[in-house]
Amino acid sequence: MKFLFLIAILFVTSCSGQQKPEQQSKVDTAKIFNPKPDLNDDLALQNISKLKNLLFVQDNFYVFLLNEQEYKIPSNDTLKTFFTNHFAEISQRRFFILYDGSDNKFPKIVSVIDNLRASNIDNYRVINIQNYSEQVPQPIATSGPAFVTVENGETPDFKIDIGPKTYKVLFNNQTEVFSDTLGIDKFIKKNKELIASKKIMLNSEKEIPSGRIKPIINILNKYNFKFEMMVR
Fold first, then answer.
1. Shared-domain flag, residues 86 and 3
2. Does residue 149 lie within any of the structural domains?
3. Does the residue 6 lie in any domain?
4. Are strands 167-171 and 200-204 parallel, antiparallel or unpaired?
5. Cβ(102)–Cβ(57) below 8 Å
6. Are the C-beta atoms of 184 and 215 separated by less than 8 Å?
7. How many other CB atoms sit within 10 Å of the CB of residue 2?
8. How many CB atoms lie within 10 A of CB 92?
9. Residue 72, H or E segment
10. Contact yes or no for 160/87 (Cβ under 8 A)
11. Which site from 84, 133, 204, 220 is most exposed, i.e. has the minimal number of CB atoms within 10 Å?
């Protein structure tokens, strides 16, 4: 609760209004957790499992659900990069931050809010899922792309490097370069039986727009491949 106490102290010492400190703390916290109240929230939160723009705050990582795609994000630095790369998609609709109500999640929630503000996103709301526990979808950490740091010496069996103009595929010690996703789709279809048992990695620079990354993710999902993604 230390962040709430700090907020209360800063608010009380900087204001000279007539409200009691307890009341001011509640008002200030509400503004931080829900800076743009939306009357449609009550309707949306009646079916949390259908929300398409939200973040689960876990103990050791974050799980991002964006347009029905799930991303596991291991650190605050990677989260910051993710917000930057997906600003257009995230800012299109109301964004929800979900946590389990425990106080130890507060530092991570504050980090998320800081990242949102740094990306000029203020249409968000923090939600305690204990109030909606029966509705909340459970994230599956092993499915979809995971934004991870690859250990030194760890080499994927099948890797796609996403560049600004080309896609480079590394497979069976051979490299092929494609100018569009159609070529990659044909390549994967031809070799899907071999690729299915391999460790699959997508590699992208943080400057690459999501419009070049998403089609590759869609192709891999079409073949039900599990994969990891690293943004440098």
1. no
2. no
3. yes
4. unpaired
5. no
6. no
7. 9
8. 12
9. strand 69-73
10. no
11. 133
Q: SS3 for 117-142, per residue?
A: HHCCCCCEEEEEHHHHCCCCCCCCCC
Query: How many Cα atoms within 13 Å fall on the side-chain side of residue 207?
Result: 3
Residue 142 CB contacts under 8 Å (≥ 6 apart), including other chains: 226
When divided into structural domains, the chain yields a total of: 3
Element of type H or E holding 77: helix 76-85
Separation of alpha carbons 116 and 125, rounded Å: 11
Say which residue the tokens 């943004």 belong to: 231
Q: CA 121 to CA 118: how far, in whole Å?
A: 8
Residues 131, 189: one domain? no
* Residue 76 located in a structural domain: yes
109 touches 35 (CB < 8 A): no
Domain that holds residue 6: 1-33
pTM: 0.48
- Residue 64 and residue 25 share a domain: no
153 in a domain, yes or no?
A: no
> Looking at 140, 172, 203, which one is the last position of a domain?
140
* Closest by CA position to 210, among listed 69, 54, 109, 97: 69
**List of residues 6+ apart from 211 with CB closer than 8 A:** none
**66 close to 42: Cβ distance less than 8 angstroms:** no
